[in-house]
Amino acid sequence: GMLLSSGWESAIFGLLAALSSQLYTDVLYLYSDFGNPMKRDQTLNRSIEGWASVYATKCLSAATLFGVYEAVRAPTSRLVSQLVSGGVGGCVGSKDYDLCMETYLIDNSGVSATNWADSFSWIIPLNDQESFQSFVR
């Protein structure tokens, strides 16, 4: 079969999680005295359109949340790694920016706590007499 992207896979899991959660909530309201009495009455008196609306809204919103999160997680993580590692500043002006950035991230995978501020030194132009550390203080 065909493999799904991680975004679609997460959307399906989000849909299933919302579906099972709503089913569990409705079963509790329909067959027990647990929960808010007003919500229980609303559940007992819900129309067919109401049932469809509740399930569609819950399932689609959860699927969207899970799917979008997973789809943007990797690119966002990569961008943050590029910024924090100092790769953006080190590769600005490069003829092949993507190759430079990939090489920079491989060669400089870890950022120590003592020099993380220097990773952003390319943002603020400094003169020869000051360092980024003194500028931040």
Characteristic key phrases:
6 helices, 137 residues, mainly alpha
SSE topology sketch:
Elements lengths: L5 H26 L5 H8 L3 H38 L1 H5 L5 H11 L24 H5 L1
Entry summary:
With 137 residues, this protein is mostly helical.
Order of helices and strands: HHHHHH
Cα Rg: 25 Å
Overall 3D shape:
elongated
Total beta strands = 0
- Distance separating the two termini: 58 Å
The description of the largest β-sheet is:
none
Task: Report the total helices.
Answer: 6
Beta fraction of the residues? under 5%
Spans with pLDDT under 50 lasting ≥5 residues? none
Mean pLDDT: 82
Q: Helix fraction?
A: 55-70%
SS-based class:
mainly alpha
Can you characterise this structure?
It contains 6 helices and no strands. With 137 residues, the protein is mostly helical. Helix 1 (6-31) crosses helix 3 (48-85). The longest helix is centred in the middle third of the chain and has 38 residues, at 48-85. The model has no long low-confidence stretch (mean pLDDT 82).
